[in-house]
Amino acid sequence: MKKIWIAIVKLGGWKFILPEKGSRPEIERCIFSTAPHTSVADYLVGTAYLWSLGVNGKIFIKKEFFRWPLGGLLRRLGCIAIDRGNRHNDMIGTAVREFAKGGPLAIAITPEGTRKPTKRWKRGFWEIAHQAGVPIVPSFLDFKNRKVYLGETIWTTDDAEADILKVRRLYKKEMAKIPENFIEVE
């Protein structure tokens, strides 16, 4: 099923820029910060790219998408339901515990936390990377040029705000499927 979906996305004109095999070992255990996130299409394209990387990839998706008929399929595809309305959902702790088990694990997170314009990114992606001791690897969904690719690896420091700002500055409005739903930082 994964190969079929990858083929469909590529037939749609998308180009996946993949690192040379073995050249990016950090992508086996990392947080992928995926942006801009302005449309459900981001998941459709981003998931195909994640599978193309050949990593043990998981994607956090709001629980509302897990209703029938999609729920079972999303779970089989490696998606994890997140209750965004519950501040006590322990998303960070759950992810950190998964990394603590060892082995390959890459979690894709959209730090904006919404498809609507937002001035402030959620910091959960940073918290997970920092607490688990894994890097953040920016992944870019460039709808303008129909390309998906990875940026340079970013290791967290003790300054969350500076690290998040560093990641945010990498993403540009013109890359978004719906540019007016993405707010750039200067």
Which descriptors would you attach to this protein?
186 residues; alpha/beta; globular
* Helical proportion, percent range: 25-40%
Overall average residue pLDDT: 88
Mass-distribution shape: globular
The main sheet comes to:
7 strands, mixed
* Number of distinct helices: 6
User: Strand order of the main beta sheet, please?
Assistant: 1-7-6-2-5-3-4
**End-to-end CA span:** 41 Å
**Number of strand segments:** 7
Explain this structure.
The structure is a single chain. The model has no long low-confidence stretch (mean pLDDT 88). The chain has helices spanning 2-11, 41-53, 70-76, 91-100, 124-132, 160-168; strands spanning 15-16, 29-35, 57-62, 79-82, 105-109, 136-142, 147-150. Strand 6 (136-142) and strand 7 (147-150) form a beta hairpin. Strands 1-7-6-2-5-3-4 form a 7-stranded mixed beta sheet, sandwiched between helices. By secondary structure, it is an alpha/beta fold.
Give me a quick take on this structure.
The protein is α/β, with parallel strands linked by helices. It has 6 helices and 7 strands. The longest helix is centred in the N-terminal third of the chain and has 13 residues.
Write the layout of secondary structure elements.
Elements: H1 2-11, E1 15-16, E2 29-35, H2 41-53, E3 57-62, H3 70-76, E4 79-82, H4 91-100, E5 105-109, H5 124-132, E6 136-142, E7 147-150, H6 160-168
Parallel strand pairs: 1-7, 2-5, 2-6, 3-4, 3-5
Antiparallel strand pairs: 6-7
Helix pairs in contact: 1-2, 4-5
